[in-house]
Amino acid sequence: MTGVLITTIAERPELAGRLWGMKDSWPAFAEHDALAWLLYPRMVAELPEYVLIATDGDTVVARAASSAPHDERGGAVARRAADH
Asked: What are the residues facing 63 on neighbouring strands?
């Protein structure tokens, strides 16, 4: 073990394709949530700064996703604030 490194997909876009290669730890009922599984790829593509990936050397050991706060128009507040 070389030590776990946690980064965002925005920082390491080359790892995006490896997010789904690790075994899921979700309970069986969660694997049947078709809507959620449709949204994960969109989140990776559109909000990579909110998708985390943990690696130990070259091995992906964990992943996490959060959501950005949105305003009433549906825009990501954090991204827009950073642009100003």
From this structure: 53
| Structure-token pair, residue 39 | 């949204």
Q: What is the pLDDT of residues 28-77, one digit of tens each?
A: 777 777 777 777 888 888 889 989 999 999 889 999 888 766 666 656 55
Both structure tokens of 49: 């700064």
Q: What is the DSSP letter of 67?
A: -
User: Cα–Cα distance between 3 and 73 in angstroms, integer?
Assistant: 41
Q: How far is CA 24 from the centre of its chain?
A: 14
CA dihedral sign, ordered 28, 34, 19, 74: negative
Q: Is 3 left (phi over 0), alpha (psi -120 to 50) or beta?
A: left
Q: What is the DSSP string of 38-54?
A: HHHHHHHHH-GGGEEEE
